[in-house]
Amino acid sequence: MTTPSPARRPRVALFVTCLVDLMRPTIGFAAVKLLEDAGCEVVVPPSQTCCGQPAFNSGDRKDAVALAKRVIAEFEGFDFLVAPSGSCAGMIATHYPELFADDDPWKARALALAAKSRELISFLVDDLGVTSTGARFDGTVTYHDSCSGLRELGIQAQPRKLLAAVEGLTLTEMKDPDVCCGFGGTFAVKYPDLSGAIVTKKCVAIEESGATTILAGDLGCLMNMAGRMTRTGSKVEARHVAEVLANMADGPAIGAAKTGE
Q1: Taking the mean position of all CA atoms in its chain, how far away is CA 229?
Q2: Is 176 part of any domain?
Q3: pTM
Q4: What is the chain's alpha carbon radius of gyration, rounded to the nearest angstrom?
Q5: Each residue of 116-132: pLDDT tens digit?
Q6: Are residues 15 and 121 in the same domain?
Q7: In terms of CB atoms within 10 Å, which of 43, 160, 208, 221 comes out highest?
Q8: CATH number of the domain that 162 lies in?
Q9: For residue 150, is pLDDT > 80?
Q10: What is the distance between the alpha carbons of residues 178 and 247, in angstroms, rounded to a whole number?
Q11: pLDDT digits 0-9 by tens, 48-82
Q12: Would you say 239 and 254 are in contact if contact means Cβ atoms under 8 Å apart?
């Protein structure tokens, strides 16, 4: 791995995210490996919970504030909060300060945490200067730009930069990689027909790219696309970009049966 030589190892708290914890823990392990290989001291706060985004998006401000306060209190003592999700990182970095009035003492704490909250891949590239993770992946991939990561955090070039250095990997761009997959958290629940139409169009673009694997930085997007492709009999596999970059992409793909079939 190509990294800078910092005077002090940054102390990073990994925000695992609900979906990773419950549905795909290997993404969390991959994140830890990437951060440690890049020279970070990694801590996983044990009592962390949801970032509050589902409540925030549903207009439940009371619960969103309560969850935000819990995250702030648990993570503010670290150099950085890093999440393998543009969605959760975007919630903390962009929306936490919006939850508190200017005269609320939690406002300054929310702003301070927001300023040091990062999405995993952008943190590796933009903050740590990583140019290669020393990974190998034999196959052709296409990359989906998740909405929150792209539009709230500016994540687009960073994953492609690291993927370009993966030995054996060929990246082929799908049509409109920056168009929504239709998940949108509670959007998919509130508007299932519209969500289904959007993900169907996205999966057509994935198939037409000729890639054998679809990568993204948000598990929600990946589960949505993998679910649709499974129902249509597609052979394209879905994986989190961190799994590929950490050389941990040899297990079952997202949405595959436990046997790996």
Answers
A1: 20
A2: yes
A3: 0.93
A4: 18
A5: 999 999 999 999 999 99
A6: yes
A7: 221
A8: 3.40.50.11810
A9: yes
A10: 25
A11: 999 999 999 999 999 999 999 999 999 999 999 99
A12: yes
Q: Are residues 16 and 43 in the same domain?
A: yes
CB within 8 A of 77, min separation 6: which ones? none
Tell the burial category of 31 from Cβ atoms under 10 Å away from its Cβ (0-12, 13-18, 19+).
buried
CA distance 125 to 133: 10
The answer on 111 and 140 residing in a single domain is no
User: Which of the four pLDDT bands, split at 50, 70 and 90, describes residue 261?
Assistant: very low
Residues 99 and 59 in one domain: yes
Same domain, 110 and 145: no
* Complete DSSP assignment for the chain: -B----SS--EEEE---HHHHHH-HHHHHHHHHHHHHTT-EEE--TT----SHHHHHTT-HHHHHHHHHHHHHHHTTSSEEEES-HHHHHIIIIIGGGGS-TTSHHHHHHHHHHHTEEEHHHIIIIIT---B---EEEEEEEE---HHHHHHH--SHHHHHHHTTSEEEEE-PPSSTTS--S-TTHHHHH-HHHHHHHHHHHHHHHHHHT-SEEEES-HHHHHHHHHHHHHTT---EEEEHHHHHTT---SPPTT--TT--
**CA distance linking residue 254 with residue 257, whole number of Å:** 9
Q: Which residues contact 256 (CB under 8 A, 6 or more apart)?
A: 237
- Which residue segment(s) compose the domain that 78 sits in? 11-125
